[in-house]
Write a structure and sequence with these properties.
Largest sheet: 6 strands, antiparallel
Number of strands: 8
Shape: rod-shaped
Helix content: 40-55%
Keywords: Membrane, Transmembrane, Transmembrane helix
Strand order of the largest sheet: 1-2-8-5-6-4
Number of helices: 6
Organism: Cladophialophora chaetospira
Oligomer: single chain
Protein name: Apple domain-containing protein
Length: 268
């Protein structure tokens, strides 16, 4: 025990002596001149040690929120589609209104005038055919084909015609398409020799039918024709206006002129 006490004594002294420089150093800190401002230096160190804080408030989310959570592209497409639908509906309504207005503008009187114009070519063409009665002629507005022929021609009914065209000179001759010759006797009727009755508008058709009958039968059964130009009157009373004659006898003055008796003088 005594030996241990002797050994520890120098260590305690050494420990005390080692603390001495600390005291010296600490006293040296207060030896600085007064203009060094140790208090200010201590404040500066504390200021630098504090973390930096920005006092400005954080900016709020300035982005505009899009309805339904759509993206900008999807929202733009949706708006464009809606605009197209609205514009299309407005445009369609405007067209419908214009069409309805045009339909109303076409009045019944206009339709009647159109119908009258559509039937006028037929009337004009028929008038042209029978204008020979007055010695005049006019051009026809009846539709024609590429070859210049009249298309879809319909003559007037006999009840609508007063007199057909007839150019008669007594003693003159007319010829059938086959070449047969007939001599004309104006306003002369041959009574009691009829073998056929037909309605026609031209004397040329009468003599042509008579000549063809002789050719088809191989005989001379038709010797002439009687043609009366009074269409409405004669046709309504007799059912026709020209007669095939087996004989050209019993000549008499015609009571309802104009008419002609054509006598066969030469067969083809």
């Amino acid at each position: 025990m005594d030996g241990l006490q002797v050994t520890n004594a120098p260590q305690e002294k050494q420990a005390v002596s080692s603390l001495e420089p600390d005291k010296y150093t600490h006293s040296q800190t207060h030896a600085y001149p007064s203009n060094s401002h140790p208090v200010a230096s201590s404040y500066q160190e504390q200021t630098l040690a504090q973390p930096y804080h920005n006092e400005k408030p954080l900016p709020s989310d300035s982005r505009q929120r899009i309805p339904f959570g759509l993206s900008i592209v999807a929202y733009s497409v949706l708006v464009a589609a809606l605009m197209l639908i609205i514009c299309g509906a407005a445009f369609g309504g405007a067209l419908g209104a214009v069409a309805a207005r045009k339909g109303k503008d076409c009045s019944p009187s206009d339709n009647a005038s159109i119908g009258a114009n559509s039937t006028s070519p037929t009337a004009t063409a028929t008038t042209t055919v029978f204008s020979i009665v007055t010695g005049t002629s006019s051009s026809s507005s009846t539709p024609t084909t590429a070859s210049g022929l009249v298309a879809d021609y319909i003559p007037l009914a006999p009840s609508q015609v007063g007199t057909a065209a007839l150019n008669c000179t007594s003693g003159s001759s007319v010829f059938a398409p086959s070449g047969s010759q007939f001599q004309l006797n104006c306003n002369v009727n041959y009574i009691g020799n009829d073998i056929g009755l037909i309605t026609t508008y031209r004397l040329e058709d009468c003599v042509g039918a008579c000549a063809n009958l002789n050719i088809l039968t191989g005989t001379t059964s038709c010797l002439g024709v009687l043609f009366n130009a009074n269409m409405q009157d004669v046709v309504s009373k007799n059912g026709g206006n020209w007669w095939l004659e087996s004989k050209m006898e019993n000549a008499a003055a015609e009571g309802t002129p104009p008419s002609v008796g054509a006598v066969l003088v030469a067969s083809a």
